[in-house]
TrEMBL record:
It comes from Paenibacillus cookii. This is Major facilitator superfamily (MFS) profile domain-containing protein. Pfam families: MFS_1 (PF07690). Residues 1-406 form the Major facilitator superfamily (MFS) profile domain. It comes from the Bacteria. InterPro entries: MFS, MFS_dom, MFS_trans_sf, MFS_Transporters. Keywords: Cell membrane, Membrane, Transmembrane, Transmembrane helix, Transport. It is found in: Cell membrane. The chain crosses the membrane at residues 21-42, 48-69, 78-96, 102-124, 136-157, 169-188, 227-250, 262-281, 293-311, 317-341, 353-376, 382-401.
Length: 415
């Protein structure tokens, strides 16, 4: 990311993105090994699924109250206090975990991450022009990619100290770096104008009236077919991400017999490919081709996952090719999808509508952990097939959304 590009950011988007590496670097390190860490401490595949699902259930609850808390406390306070709870405290719990009860407690605490998730999107989007939001989410994707380059450091720790001690060190580093990020971001951002107004309005309405007002947000979602379609794609995207994050590393190590120390190389390869895609391919995609870019990205993601199950091999070249296709697919779909979702939401209703979307996402993705655990025990390839099916369904929904856009534009021209 060049200095010139970053200087284009203004206000809260600059403050939010400047500190984001301090979250994404440690997350990319321990995220690769989280499932293997639980498994090596004696947690069964089914219990891993249950812990994942219970965590998602808590996220459903925190998503439901996130809009109210974000409006009531303000974007800055909500993101600071609940990030400290859901990530700083959770990483310490993971670092000292001994059995299933430690992981369950950490999952419950981490489940409150949906409050800062909604607050973050409000903080980074509300003072940013709609035309600049794809740019902001592209930069956010770049930072995520660069964070992935540090995943091999986790592999070095595992090789040097062993899997369990190495992952414990990663969680301690995550606590230190994430806490620094939360405080630094708080000091370099300001409350948005909409946030200040919503704080006043929420205090006047009270909790009961504010929660009743959520009924209007739900009606807004279901009354608009374009909104439903783009939200449906977003839900499928999150569903596959939950299942893939939970079971891919386990599939590679347990079923394909890839060495644990090598698994961290794949996120790094993915990061390099995503940066090359951003540099060589993304500038050639015009803004009006965003829908087609998303469909192409989803199609590549289908192919990358199918490769791992039609020819289950520990051959690093084959797994590397799958990783390359997945990286290109993600890079040319994710920023456009994030911007499309945010641009579909009215700024005045952002906290409520986005929190309700988060509830819908989590209600429909909560079973992913249990489904994945049962499916993995039946056949470790099934979760990867499910991920492929989610991307294939996204292509179909995107075709419907693209066709609807074209029809609406034609009607507008006729009028």
């Amino acid at each position: 990311m060049s200095r010139r590009r970053f200087s284009r950011l203004q206000g809260n988007s600059r403050g939010c993105l400047a500190f984001e590496p301090f979250f994404l670097i440690p997350y990319s390190m321990f995220g690769t090994y989280a499932t293997l860490y639980m498994h090596n401490l004696g947690i069964s595949e089914t219990n891993i699924g249950w812990i994942t699902t219970i965590g998602l259930v808590v996220q459903v609850f925190s998503s439901f109250i996130s809009g109210y808390l974000t409006d009531r406390m303000g974007r800055k306070s909500a993101i600071l206090y609940f990030d400290l709870l859901s990530w700083s405290l959770a990483t310490i719990l993971w670092a000292v975990s001994q059995n299933v009860w430690f992981f369950l407690a950490a999952a419950i605490i981490n489940g409150f991450q949906r409050v800062p998730h909604v607050a973050f999107y409000c903080l980074v989007v509300e003072d940013t022009k709609p035309s600049d939001r794809t740019y902001v989410f592209t930069l956010l994707q770049i930072i995520s990619v660069i964070g992935g380059l540090f995943a091999p450091l986790g592999g070095l720790l595992v090789d040097r100290f062993g899997l369990v001690p190495g992952v414990r060190i990663m969680y301690v580093l995550a606590f230190l770096m994430m806490t620094f990020q939360f405080v630094g971001r708080h000091l370099t951002t300001r409350e948005t104008e909409i946030g200040l107004r919503k704080m006043r309005e929420t205090r006047e309405l009270g909790l009961k009236e504010s929660l009743i007002d959520y009924g209007g947000a739900i009606r807004d979602i279901f009354a608009s077919k374009p909104l439903l379609l783009i939200f449906g794609i977003y839900i499928l995207f999150n569903f596959q991400a939950t299942m893939k994050t939970t079971y891919l590393s386990l599939y590679l190590a347990d079923y394909l017999h890839v060495d644990s120390g090598l698994i961290s190389l794949f996120p790094a390869v993915s990061s390099v490919i995503m940066l090359l895609t951003l540099w060589l391919l993304m500038p050639k995609i015009p803004e009006q081709a965003a829908n087609r870019a998303m469909m192409a990205g989803f199609a590549l993601s289908v192919l990358s996952n199918v490769m791992l199950v039609i020819l289950p091999t520990s051959n690093l070249a084959w797994i590397g090719l799958s990783t390359v296709l997945a990286a290109v697919g993600l890079m040319i779909s994710s920023p456009y999808l994030e911007a499309a979702v945010q641009n579909a939401i009215d700024d005045e209703k952002r906290a409520k509508v986005f929190s309700m979307l988060s509830v819908l996402i989590l209600l429909l993705t909560s079973p992913a952990g249990i489904i994945g655990g049962w499916a993995y025990e039946l056949d470790p390839r099934i979760p990867i097939w499910i991920v492929s099916a989610a991307f294939a369904a996204s292509v179909l929904l995107m075709l419907m959304h693209h066709r609807g856009d074209r029809v609406r534009k034609e009607r507008t021209l006729e009028q």
